[in-house]
Amino acid sequence: MGPQRPVQDIRMNDLRLVVFDMDGTLIDSQDFILAAMKRAFAQADFPEPSRADVLAIVGLSLDAAVSVLLPDLSSKGNANAVKLYKQSFLDLRAEQGEDHHVPMYPGARAALERLHRQEKTLMGVATGKAMRGLLHSYDSHDLHKFFVTSQTADGHPSKPHPSMLHSALHETGVDVTRAIMVGDTEFDIEMGVAAGFATIGVSWGYHSVERIKAAGADIIIDDFSELDTALERLWR
Asked: Which of 100, 129, 160 is the last residue of a domain?
């Protein structure tokens, strides 16, 4: 996905980049994730995972998430569990309509609109979703215009490996000293730290504030209304 506005007339060293996680940061997909995981585990005759255990692995790529939830599975068993989860997610979407069950968090769209109006600020996404799932989220909420770089689990190691953020820097040309990662899990923050990004944790997502702090978040915000001030503080 290319930039939605020209950036060639802005000096590259003036550009700044905000990369958002998706699930738990911009959209609240926990009910869908929990329902899909419950259905997949039932189909495979595995013990139902707890809500806490499932939310703890949100953000990881699916194979890594399954390895945490079911560490004794063979590689073949892991692949089958991943396949069942993906199909369960698609089935639930078809049955219920994801548009109605995966809302954006309060203030998220307004925050994206504000940042999009800033000539020197570019935005991206780094998510454990596959590209197919991310594009569905973009379509559901009309988000395509906001993001000039979209990094997914399809082509990268699982978070907290910094590969997704390295690619975001390469695609945008932004210097790492001007880049900030925003996320709700320790995996987001650890990925940002590993890539040399400044990091902002959000308190409304799937990991506790304590876990986000321990991962090394520079700032933690409790509402999207606090995002602009936090970003400017880090850029200064």
From this structure: 100
Q: Which positions ≥6 away from 160 have C-beta within 8 Å?
A: 186, 187, 188, 189, 190, 191, 194
Residue at 74 is within a domain: yes
pLDDT tens figures, 171-221 = 999 999 999 999 999 999 999 999 999 999 999 999 999 999 999 999 999
| DSSP letter for each residue of 6-23 | --TTS-GGG-EEEEE-SB
CB 168 within 8 A of CB 151: yes
pLDDT in tens, 88-124: 878 887 887 544 568 999 999 999 999 999 999 999 9
Which of 168, 172, 145, 142 minimizes the C-alpha distance to 155?
168
- Report yes or no: 115 and 229 within 8 Å, Cβ to Cβ: no
Q: Which residue has the tokens 């997704």?
A: 164
123 lies in the same domain as 85: no
Q: Which CATH number goes with the domain that contains 201?
A: 3.40.50.1000
Mean pLDDT of the 123-141 span: 92
Per-residue confidence at 157, pLDDT binned at 50, 70, 90? very high
CA end-to-end distance (rounded Å), the chain: 29
CB of 120 closer than 8 Å to CB of 235: no
